[in-house]
Specification:
32% of the residues lie in helices and 27% in strands. Helix 3 links the parallel strand 3 and strand 4.
Length: 243
């Protein structure tokens, strides 16, 4: 017999109810932990932005979140007088940070201190699967969370955000800047087209990724495709010093 086959109908119903209750509790805990992680990460970013950077310390700034705000004039007529005021709406956000140059890892939800990122970078293999030279074992500029409001897409706001982030990266002293983008042919099409059009190029897989993508076509290995937490993403890079 199958295990539990002799259980009565009542017991079976009770077990099913308990199983559903357990699944609901597990889902609630998972959602709570995810929300908590996101909120803590956002609070860290806001506090870091409010605090600013200490010019007395010889440490590079390690995080910056920018917001693109659309300002709209509104005229209010009151009898013979007219008053004009302005409304503001955030239509886009983007994030720049120092991150270890690991194609198989995204930026963590929490803001890590720069020295921790440096330590992680020292143990990060390059795209050839080898350890990098000592002078290269440093975090790289990394762009993430480039988002525009759905009703404002197609207006070039993403290009504005990217230009702003690249400008900040130059001020930080970054030689290049990196990012991940969705590899899906449908959901990632627009973002990939944007990044390619402004000069981003693939960082080819030369041994970092243990899973082969030959079955997806011979060119996939040269397009910077990596499996990041079970999701196929492209790892792109753009030089900021003209190389």
């Amino acid at each position: 017999r199958e295990f539990g086959a002799i259980a009565t109908t009542t017991s079976s119903s009770s077990i099913t109810t308990s199983s559903k209750l357990g699944d609901e509790i597990a889902t609630w805990i998972e959602n709570f932990l995810f929300s908590f992680t996101v909120l803590v990460g956002l609070d860290q970013r806001v506090e870091r932005r409010k605090k600013g950077y200490d010019s007395n310390k010889n440490l590079p700034p390690d995080h910056n979140v920018i917001c693109l705000v659309e300002v709209t004039p509104v005229t209010n007529e009151n009898g013979n007088a007219e008053t004009t005021y302005y409304t503001e709406q955030i239509v886009g956000i983007a994030e720049l940070s120092w991150q270890p140059p690991n194609p198989t890892r995204n930026a963590p939800p929490f803001v890590l201190p720069y020295f921790v990122k440096t330590l992680i970078s020292r143990f990060t293999p390059n795209s050839n699967g080898e350890k990098e030279a000592d002078e290269s074992k440093l975090p790289k500029g990394y762009i993430s969370n480039v988002l525009t409001w759905k009703t404002r897409r197609g207006l070039g706001y993403s290009r504005v955000l990217m230009a702003a982030l690249e400008g900040i990266a130059v001020r930080w002293g970054c030689d290049d800047i990196r990012l991940h983008v969705d590899a899906d042919e449908v959901s990632g099409k627009v973002a990939r087209a944007l990044y390619w059009s402004i000069g981003y190029e693939a960082v080819p897989d030369r041994g970092n990724n243990k899973l082969g993508y030959e079955w997806m076509g011979p060119s996939m290995a040269n397009q910077g495709l990596y499996l990041v937490e079970g999701v196929p993403l492209l790892y792109l890079r753009k030089s900021l010093n003209g190389e």
